[in-house]
Specification:
Helix content is about 45%, strand content about 20%. By secondary structure, the chain is α+β, with helices and mostly antiparallel strands. A hairpin with a 3-residue loop joins strand 2 (about 65-70) and strand 3 (about 75-80). The protein is elongated, with a radius of gyration of 19 Å. The relative contact order is 0.16.
Length: about 160
Amino acid sequence: MQDEVIEGSRAKAALLVVGSVALTAVCIFCLTLPDPGLRGRLAGWIGAPFFIIAGLAWAMQAVRPPVLTLGDQGFTQTALRGPPLRVAWADIEPLGVWTYRRTSMVTFKYLPGRRPAKLGALARMNSAFGMDGTVSTAFPIKAEALAAKMNARRAAANGASA
């Protein structure tokens, strides 16, 4: 099978930049009120830096979106920073979907004995939720459809149905 390349959505990233700018403005407005109170001050001093950083991250994704490559041997996900994440189909269980409120993401769990010895902090935190890793939510495809597509590639590579 030929590799399939899925590029992150620049439009989604741009919309999130606009949302971050708007929420930063709201947080700064809270600080300019004559008597913002404790909640207003907390919203301003915690919210503004958070949304500024989030806006910058989304702006970088609008310029250089993440890329997911589905190949015969596994998948590769490139992101803004760090080396690409390469996962072999033979090393993981069938992929699943984790949902919280209106946000869904594709998740994966390594087979026993196949988990890499060195995992990042985020991967260690994911383990508390019963997963070893996630696929970015920036792609222009629903998590359920992406998981089904990835599981089909995994099943074809492993010679079994998943």
